[in-house]
């Protein structure tokens, strides 16, 4: 694992995000800017993947944990405040790190920094360059349960288990569908609203 090194904020980063434990792979390629915070990256990942930000999360980068501190945090667990960490301070090319979402379902995302480019004019925007497959529905039980659903959908599409899952997820849920334009529209809306800081 590469060790983060400091760079200036005037860089943008292409991140490859993969949801672990599910096949076929659910992935996104996202461009972000160096002056953004890890909290902003959290919101970007939520919109790009299709999550609803209904649960806790954390980043693990080079052995350190970053999150928004919570009064009920374990006092033994050292957490760095993600709101105070700019991406350019922790990211560099070829770095791999993890983003965990929903500690009950335990959705783990592997993120790789695949490209770093100079940026003369940071705009505070992010966009999804590419991606494949839908994000699992919230509270669907984690990667094992979701993988079981995918298997049942393929081999027993009319089974009680599939019908029950689709009642929860929505009858129009399609695990192969990813709408890049909708994800980018959500990101643009958040950027225009200064990521909720207005």
Can you characterise this structure?
The chain has helices at residues 38-49, 87-90, 143-155, 160-169, 180-192; strands at residues 11-19, 26-33, 57-61, 64-67, 79-81, 96-101, 107-118, 127-132. The protein is 26% helix and 27% strand. The chain has an 8-stranded mixed β-sheet with strand order 5-4-3-6-7-1-2-8. The termini are far apart. The protein is globular, with a radius of gyration of 17 Å. A hairpin with a 6-residue loop joins strand 1 (11-19) and strand 2. The chain folds into 2 domains: 11-133 and 178-196, MM3350-like (Structural Genomics Hypothetical 15.5 Kd Protein In mrcA-pckA Intergenic Region, Chain A); 135-175, no CATH class. It has 198 residues and is an alpha+beta fold. The model has no long low-confidence stretch (mean pLDDT 90). The longest helix has 13 residues, at 143-155. It has 5 helices and 8 strands, in the order ββαβββαβββααα.
């Amino acid at each position: 694992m590469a060790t983060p090194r400091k760079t200036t904020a005037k860089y943008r980063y292409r991140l490859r995000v993969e949801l672990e434990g599910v096949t076929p792979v659910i992935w996104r390629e996202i461009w972000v800017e160096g002056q953004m915070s890890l909290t902003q990256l959290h919101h970007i990942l939520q919109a790009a993947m299709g999550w609803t930000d209904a649960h806790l999360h954390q980043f693990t980068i080079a052995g350190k944990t970053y999150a928004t501190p919570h009064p009920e945090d374990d006092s033994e667990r050292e957490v760095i405040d993600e709101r105070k960490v700019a991406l350019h301070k922790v990211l560099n090319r070829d770095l791999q790190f993890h983003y965990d979402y929903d500690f009950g379902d335990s959705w783990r995302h592997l993120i790789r920094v695949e490209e770093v480019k100079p940026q003369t004019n940071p705009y505070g925007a992010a966009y999804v360059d590419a991606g494949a497959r839908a994000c699992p529905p919230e509270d669907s039980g984690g990667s094992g349960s979701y993988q079981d659903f995918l298997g049942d959908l393929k081999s027993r599409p009319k089974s009680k288990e599939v019908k029950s899952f689709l009642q929860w997820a929505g009858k129009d849920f399609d695990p192969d569908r990813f709408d890049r334009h909708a994800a980018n529209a959500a990101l643009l809306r958040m950027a225009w609203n200064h990521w909720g800081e207005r």
